[in-house]
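Try it yourself: sequence plus zinc ion, in.
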Amino acid sequence: MTTRKLIGTNQEFTIGKIVCLARNYAEHAKELGNETPAAPILFMKPASSVIGDGEAVHIPAYSQECHYEVELAVLIGKQCRGVSAEKAMENVAGYGTAIDMTLRDVQSQLKAKGLPWEIAKGFDTSCPLSDFVPADVVVDPHALNLKLAVNGDGRQDGNSSDMIHRVPQIVAYISAIFTLEPGDVILTGTPAGVGPVRAGDVMTAEIVSVGRLTIPVT
Ligand code: ZN
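Structure, out:
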């Protein structure tokens, strides 16, 4: 079981399912040659993919191209199903920083064949995840600067204001399909600037006032 703290409270959540959005920033969709979707594109990572600050990403032997994607993580605090966008935020407990590690070569092969992405997205160590800050501490989840550096070189520098689908709509959309439970996490997509890491690299991901991760790659 993997748990995460809600910083500044005594609350701790056991991480459940991790529902992720693909192509939720137009510039990133463009850099991978994808169309911008009308509805959110969803995939999942298992809770077993989560690692914490300072732990290492292990690139599986079946990939030669492992990419970082810094993302705003949304922590669900209450069970909800079929919630409206207007009421969705009542179910959000906090925000954190995540890296959606992606085996781009494997994903591209799967996409070309129309096959599911799990082995490219859900492998062990594919989800570095910080603790969470309480939702009421974050004035506006759509005004956050997301940054990722590799060995100190800036690679991603985006803002959550550029999200296509916003947090209330995302929670509403997902909760109509999957009951959301306390400890479930939503990864809201990555801004442009994704790229590869290799064994020996160290990634630093930061969303100011939300969370920071330092993650080596092996
Ligand atoms: Zn992603």
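One thing you can check immediately is this: The chain has five helices and 17 strands.
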